[in-house]
Write a structure and sequence with these properties.
heterodimer; A: mainly alpha; Histone, subunit A; 3 helices; flat; B: alpha+beta; Arc Repressor Mutant, subunit A; 3 domains; eight-stranded mixed beta sheet; three-stranded antiparallel beta sheet; 15 helices; 16 strands; 19% strand; elongated
């Protein structure tokens, strides 16, 4: 786990870390990567990849409208709203 | 190097909004057009602690589509998280399908310039739509409406089998017809029910392998698909001919300037870090679900076209017109079910019905003249009860006032006069009244016959059988 990889990860995750946090995270991730390497060393020849630890199928829901939306309640927790819209800093395409 | 030395290679990714009542992972209303954020529930907003539950109907619709394009259907499939940040994606990831899509390789058949083309479909997968960003209204701010967030999408990815902008537009059109036939999408392009991204590259005719491609995003009309791709092909050829190279990038089409330009804010190389969504279990496509999906595959456009031509004897043009829209095809077939002939039914629908619909801005689904009324009207022409011209009058009455075809004919005295005595009497009168024209006819001026037919028809209020009038007139004019 090196600095360059960490930079890339923080940029993709849109996180800003202090120098102290960077040191801690770098150390943490280093351990996690080592653990993954250890797991990778296990011989999985002929073993089907597992999509989910639960041995179950996805239950399906009937196509019915069951949720009434209380917009005011959701808007109330947002930092900035207007005309029923959530407002965010301008996004330029 | 002239343009004819270049070949373009085009593949489309088409996002089809599935016409479910509720969203793909929540029970919120999926209908278009509500006040902002009144249809975005806690699940759609990505509130902490909520869990997605998959909509069975969205799965069924994807399967119906897969069966209609003869695709490989997965026995189990999986949902993955596609991670990126954008304000109209509240969770920070879109639930999509990465390497185990529900629908695998298939094929779409379409007709271009009278020839049948088979276009490969690489895959089709289920995913959730994002919300909408409104950039225009607020200074320095962007407004977010999350009503669309969680609307089910089927993303259909074609093979790069398309060669011209016209072919790409025809493919988009064919897809539009297909999903409407299947009843899985309302096909409303103005509301964004179908959006298309185009992958475009060019290569020299003798070149092996493909050239570098660009992706044009968010094309939402048949015309824009054709124009944007045509423009991008010209641009790439110009770049290559001037010694440059095409850069792989995402571009946006601007219909006002008719040009494509690079999308800004995409400097970061795309890295979506897909991984299986732990909130969703693998989806098993059970035999029951598959049977249900199969039962919903109707007669497909390609089969309908074949049947109209081969069994009903309709021309290519008639067939194309009648099958392009499932509602039109449905109206046509319901008209036929009354027992009238296919060709007259086709003509009436293409001319009178469509003309009247266009004039009034109505949809055929809300046509004031029902298929049953039209069928009876055509039957009365075929039986000789009324002439085609009079039928037009009856049609107008049906359109304006409704009612029963026979009742209208009787109440207005429109029944065609085929009584030979009655017509013969009028014919004699007309002939006696115009000795000059009779002389002209006898002198060999055949065209004068038209004059007499006109006079007789006028005298009978258009109700005389034109065929009979012709025969009787010729007899009378030949003279004693």
């Amino acid at each position: 786990m090196d600095r360059k990889t960490l930079d890339r990860l923080t940029r993709l995750s849109q996180l800003q870390l202090s120098a102290e946090e960077e040191r801690l995270v770098l150390d943490d991730l280093g351990h996690i990567v080592a653990l993954i390497d250890e797991m990778r060393a296990v011989d999985t020849e002929g073993v089907e990849p597992l999509a989910h630890p639960l041995d179950m199928d996805q239950p399906l829901r009937d196509d019915a409208v069951t949720e009434a939306v209380d917009r005011a309640r959701f808007l109330a927790v947002a930092p900035l709203t207007r005309d029923g819209l959530y407002l965010v800093p301008r996004v330029v395409e | 190097m002239p343009a004819r030395d270049w070949e373009s290679v085009i593949g489309l990714e088409i996002h089809v909004q599935l016409a479910t009542r509720s969203k793909i992972f929540s029970g919120a209303d999926a209908a278009f057009g509500a006040a902002p954020n009144t249809r975005a529930c806690a699940v759609d907003l990505g509130m902490p602690g909520v869990l997605p539950v998959l909509n069975r109907e969205a799965v069924r619709m994807a399967l119906t589509f897969g069966l209609a394009i003869d695709a490989e259907i997965a026995r189990t499939c999986r949902f993955d998280r596609k991670n990126y940040f954008y304000p109209d994606l509240p969770k920070g990831y879109q639930i999509s399908q990465f390497d185990q899509p529900i629908v695998g390789a298939g094929v779409m058949e379409m007709e271009v310039d009278g020839a049948t083309r088979r276009i490969g479909i690489r895959r089709a997968h289920l995913e959730e739509d994002a919300g909408k960003s409104l950039h225009e209204e607020y200074a320095d701010m962007t407004g977010i409406d999350l009503n669309r967030a969680g609307t089910p999408l089927l993303e259909v990815v074609s093979e790069p089998d398309l060669r011209t902008p016209a072919e790409a537009a025809a493919f988009f059109r064919e897809m539009h017809a297909l999903v409407r036939y299947l009843g899985i999408c309302d096909g409303n392009l103005n509301e964004g029910s179908m959006r298309c991204d185009a992958n475009v590259s060019v290569r020299r005719r003798d070149q092996e392998g493909l050239g570098e491609r660009t992706e044009i995003k968010n094309l939402n009309s048949f015309r824009f698909v054709r124009q944007a791709i045509a423009h991008e092909i010209d641009r790439q050829i110009a770049v290559l001919e001037s010694g440059g190279s095409v850069v792989r990038e995402t571009r946006l089409y601007d219909p006002r300037g008719d040009e494509t330009r690079p999308m800004r804010g995409k400097e970061l190389s795309e890295d979506y870090r897909y991984f299986p969504d732990p909130d969703l279990l693998p989806v098993r496509v059970t035999p029951d679900l598959l049977a249900e999906a199969r039962a919903r595959v109707p007669e497909l456009p390609r089969d309908k076209r074949r049947r109209y031509r081969e069994e009903l004897g309709l021309s290519d043009a008639d067939t194309r017109f009648l099958t392009a829209d499932p509602d039109v095809a449905g109206y046509f077939e319901a008209t036929l079910a009354t027992g009238c002939g296919a060709k007259p039914a086709a003509n009436w629908i293409m001319e009178r019905v469509t003309g009247s619909l266009n004039r009034t801005g109505l949809d055929i689904a809300r046509c004031p003249v029902t298929s049953g009324q039209l069928g009876r009207l055509i039957a009365r022409i075929e039986e000789g009860v009324i002439s085609g011209k009079i039928a037009g009058t009856v049609f107008d009455v049906l359109w304006e006032e409704g009612g029963d075809v026979d009742a209208i004919i009787d109440a207005r005295g429109l029944r065609q006069v085929s009584d030979a005595d009655e017509i013969g009497r009028v014919v004699r009168e007309v002939v006696n009244d115009h000795p000059e024209q009779v002389e002209q006819f006898r002198a060999g001026r055949e065209k004068v016959l038209g004059f007499f037919v006109g006079r007789v028809m006028r005298a009978t209020g258009g109700k005389a059988d034109p065929g009979q009038v012709n025969v009787l007139l010729r007899d009378a004019l030949r003279g004693p």
